[in-house]
């Protein structure tokens, strides 16, 4: 399940590419603004088969979540967070084309140090994120 949150000011980002709807009025998206922010729990990624392997201790898993940010079209930042900690434990900047290349080269997993994500499921997830952004 996708969880869509607002930007830093708590406003939901919607509208066309480069457009933000704020209180029913459309405004241009500032260049530094991200296109979307999505959160997934460690358990959700496991359930959906996105996580192939994890080194996260069992007693930490309920406090771990992944944050996916779309700073621009075709670019994603996947960050691993621990609840209550402001800064991410790690972040990985991904381009959709790089993931597609990995899939073509039959690379099975994406190593995020503490977890390994299945490339095919990660692509499926990112496609869902993109489609939810454009079709909300």
TrEMBL record:
Gene Ontology biological process terms, A to Z: negative regulation of Ras protein signal transduction
Domain of life: Eukaryota
A cellular component term, taken from the record's GO annotations: cell cortex
GO molecular function, one term: GTPase activator activity
Xref: SUPFAM superfamilies: RGC domain-like (SSF143885)
Protein name: Uncharacterized protein
């Amino acid at each position: 399940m996708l969880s869509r949150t607002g930007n830093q000011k708590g406003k939901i980002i919607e509208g066309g590419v480069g457009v933000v709807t704020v209180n029913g009025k459309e405004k241009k998206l500032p260049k530094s603004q991200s296109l979307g922010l999505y959160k997934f729990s460690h358990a959700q990624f496991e359930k959906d088969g996105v996580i192939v392997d994890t080194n996260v201790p069992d007693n930490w898993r309920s406090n771990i979540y992944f944050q996916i940010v779309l700073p621009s079209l075709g670019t994603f930042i996947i960050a691993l967070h621990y609840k209550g900690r402001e800064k991410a434990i790690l972040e990985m900047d991904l381009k959709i084309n790089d993931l597609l290349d990995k899939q073509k080269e039959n690379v099975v997993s994406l190593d995020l140090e503490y977890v390994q994500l299945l490339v095919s499921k990660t692509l499926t997830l990112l496609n869902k994120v993109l489609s939810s952004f454009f079709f909300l």
